[in-house]
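Explain this one:

_____
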Amino acid sequence: MLCDSMGLDEKEGVGLCVADIPHILKGCVPDRYQFSPHKPITPKHPTFITSPSLKDRIHCVAYVFDINSIDNLSSKMVAKFKQVQKEVLNCGVAHVALFTKVNNCYEVLQDNFLKMNKSMISQSQIQNANKMLGIPLSNILVVENYASEREMDPLKDILILSALKQMFRAADDFLEDLPLE
């Protein structure tokens, strides 16, 4: 199952509340819960799941970044991301970063889309993300979005499916590391 939540914002009171992160990761937040950027869920909430099962827990977190804006993240946004990352690491959950909107980097796409990770542009952005955000290089995955295309593109699909495969591997590693009950 895939779970999606609202994104982060550098302003307080906008976007996902960082205090909700541990509850989301541990599976304590019910499906379709309406998050509030001002008030995190607490164990006193009537729909709070006090004893979540393994299927309710998050097994892999995918941070999604626009590849063209990674170098422009504010210090507040980086600090907020690091708070989230700390919660993810404290819960022992696997994590990857997806760099999207690569189609805006025309140099990457001109010759060989399949060698995109080796291009100078994406490589420097990946290195910057690694340094700035502390995401391991092996956990940074680059994909191109479908935006207004009417037909499937096998080259885009290869990268998207490859990223999904990496996320499944990370989730599988997480599950293998869990103690037997």
User: Anything to note?
Assistant: The two ends are 22 Å apart (CA to CA). The CA atoms of residues 27 and 54 lie 8 Å apart. DSSP finds five helices and three strands in the chain.
